[in-house]
Specification:
Order of helices and strands: EHEHHEHEHEEEHEHEHHHHEHEHHHH
Number of helices: 16
Largest sheet: 8 strands, parallel, barrel
Bound molecules: flavin mononucleotide
CATH topology of the largest domain: TIM Barrel
Number of strands: 11
Mean pLDDT: 95
Length: 447
């Protein structure tokens, strides 16, 4: 395999007290971080000091589940609305991209087009939309529905939703606003385009009441893993969050997506695939392992069993079983490929119930010295398993500074990561082209 000469793309996942599910209980983490803007500001500035490409914030438009016995043991019961948080962070940062999550299942395209166009203007071209179709079914109850929209329907809606949003972002030519005091013309009506969309799910006339975003279109991020999820990603995503823990699976996903995109006429280099990774860093491997073990020991079994049930099937109750015994047979229910993967791991590694939920809760940890972390990043990048990483910092505020001070310089010394931001916008830093306006491109073709 030829050695890659491009560089890693890095995202920093913003998560209240940290990404580890029990982080808020650890002495190194700030427990009351969820709605503390100063906390997020400090993290954002650390990420920018480390020359990260972007900050990322996830979202659920409901409580993160309705099993209060488990939820009440996490810091997930409260969180900022992502676009509001990112708008505030735009004002206290200069270079870093701002990836906010918004669902296509319980929103309207006009609202989403408008909000992300606004964020792109506010931040001078640093906005990105993580398009999700909602993983938490409880969201349905907040939007007049008895039950969640079915998976296939969610993706059909998402496809159309996406197309409408992009159409609205093209409402104005880039030079539609002469704002000419002498002639009195503020905008040029010939450079305004009305979408007039009528589809299966949406009827949206347009145009948008915000000028074309500085990036043309804010960057499109997606994390689908199912067949319709991957189809949407291959067609429209510019950044993909992946969740593979093992190199061969990550390589297969990488190749699959890049090939699908090429078959659709896209340049595969214009899709950046970023798996999530949680670095636990120590001066020695033993120290790093001890740190990881401390976090894992803080996971309450009630929470651990809930994480397991959420993966195997919501109604499964394992509380009567010996936690240090084997996993009993459980009915398949509605859970799909993720359930099968977890059962396979339990069987292969002969895991007890406790070991299995700890494995799930631990996420995708990379445990070791700064050199070990840099080696893993390099191996995955050069092995074409990814184009970079979405870094899930285990605890905040400390773990991002450790990473920036100890791992980033190693990546830079190996030529794997930038020393300075190359561009002005997120698109430029990611090496993504600025899309032409579909309406002006059509007019130019006719002229
Ligand atoms: C890093 C990462 C972040 C995600 N963030 C969210 C989120 O904030 N909200 C959400 O509803 N889903 C989120 N998802 C779920 C994905 O959008 C997607 O639904 C999931 O990967 C399953 O794929 P599928 O939808 O194709 O079945 C995330 C997934 C990953 C890997």
């Amino acid at each position: 395999m030829t050695r890659r000469t491009d560089q890693l793309k890095l995202g920093a996942f913003l998560a209240n007290s940290g990404h580890h599910v029990a982080a808020w209980r650890h002495p190194l983490a700030q427990a009351d971080a969820s709605l503390d803007f100063e906390h997020f500001k400090a993290i954002a500035r650390s990420a920018e000091r480390g020359r990260f490409d972007a900050l990322f914030v996830a979202d659920v438009v409901a409580l993160w589940g309705h099993h209060l016995d488990a939820l009440s043991r996490t810091a997930r019961g409260e969180h900022f609305e992502p676009l509001t948080l990112m708008a505030a962070l735009a004002a206290v940062t200069e270079h870093i991209g701002l990836i906010a999550t918004a669902t296509t299942s319980y929103n309207e395209p006009y609202h989403i087009a408008r909000k992300f166009a606004s964020l792109d203007h506010l931040s001078k071209g640093r906005a990105a939309w993580n398009l999700v179709t909602s993983v938490v079914s409880d969201e349905a109850w907040n939007f007049g529905r008895e039950s969640h929209i079915e998976h296939a329907d969610r993706y059909q809606r998402a496809e159309e939703f996406h197309d409408v949003v992009k159409g609205l972002w093209d409402s104005w030519d880039d030079d539609a606003f002469p704002r000419d005091k002498a002639s009195g013309q503020y905008f040029d009506p010939d450079k305004l385009h009305t979408l007039n969309h009528r589809g299966q799910h949406f009827a949206v006339r347009g145009p948008l009441n915000v000028a074309r975003p500085p990036q043309g279109h804010p960057v499109l991020v997606q994390a689908g893993a199912s067949e319709p999820g991957k189809a949407l990603a291959a067609r429209v995503a510019e950044v993909i969050f992946a969740s593979h823990h093992e190199l061969p699976a990550a390589q297969a996903f990488y190749q699959d997506i890049k090939q699908r995109a090429a078959a659709l006429g896209r340049d595969p280099d214009h899709i950046k695939i970023l798996p999530g990774v949680t670095p636990f860093i120590g001066e020695t491997r033993e120290q790093a392992q001890a740190l990881f073990d401390e976090f894992q020991a803080l996971i309450d079994p009630v929470l651990g069993l809930r994480l397991l049930a959420d993966t195997l099937g919501e109604d499964i109750d394992l509380s009567g079983h010996d936690l240090d015994g084997p996993l009993p047979e459980t009915p398949a229910g509605q859970r799909g490929s993720r359930r099968d993967q977890v059962l396979e791991v339990a069987r292969r590694d002969n895991l007890s119930i406790r070991q299995l939920y700890l494995r799930l809760a631990g996420g995708n940890p990379v445990i070791g010295t700064p050199e070990d972390i840099a080696d893993t990043f390099e191996a995955w990048f050069q092995g074409r398993a990814c184009d970079g990483f979405n870094v899930f910092f285990p605890y905040f505020p400390g773990s991002i500074d450790t990473f920036v001070d100890q791992v980033i310089p190693l990546l830079q010394a190996r030529g794997l990561f930038r020393r300075e931001y190359e561009g002005r916008t997120l698109r430029e830093n990611l090496g993504l082209p600025r899309p032409a306006n579909r309406f002006s491109a059509r007019e130019e073709a006719r002229a």
